[in-house]
Amino acid sequence: EENYTRSEGLAVASFHMFKDGLFSSDPSSPWRVDAEGLMNLTKDQLAQGLQVTQDNPLLGLEGRTTLLNRLGEEIKKHPQYFGSEDN
């Protein structure tokens, strides 16, 4: 088992969350990020994915969650930049 810290740990955890389909609204297509997946992401899901515990705290978790939720909103509002999710 590897131990990562700081930015490296966040990057590895983010990759695993992506791989596990946390950012996708379609369970049959987990290896994608879509507007609904980001908009529906909860603080608890992000905390679990980033392995946040009392012994491994992460400042700004709520703000990070809100930022990802807002990114989902922008993706949905601007398909001319991010592509249509109807494909």
End-to-end distance: 38 Å
Helix content: 40-55%
Q: Tell me, what's the shape?
A: globular
Q: H/E element string?
A: HHHHH
* Mean pLDDT over the residues: 92
Number of strands: 0
User: What is the C-alpha radius of gyration, as a whole number of Å?
Assistant: 14 Å
Low-confidence stretches: none
Major sheet summary line: none
Provide a descriptive summary of the structure in words.
- The chain has 87 residues and is mainly α.
- 54% of the residues lie in helices and 0% in strands.
- It is built from 5 helices and no strands.
- The N and C termini lie far apart (38 Å).
Brief descriptors of the model:
single chain; 87 residues; mainly alpha; 5 helices; 54% helix; 0% strand; globular
List the helices and strands and how they pair.
Blueprint: H1 6-19, H2 35-39, H3 43-49, H4 61-77, H5 79-82
Concise synopsis of the structure shown:
With 87 residues, the protein is mainly alpha-helical.
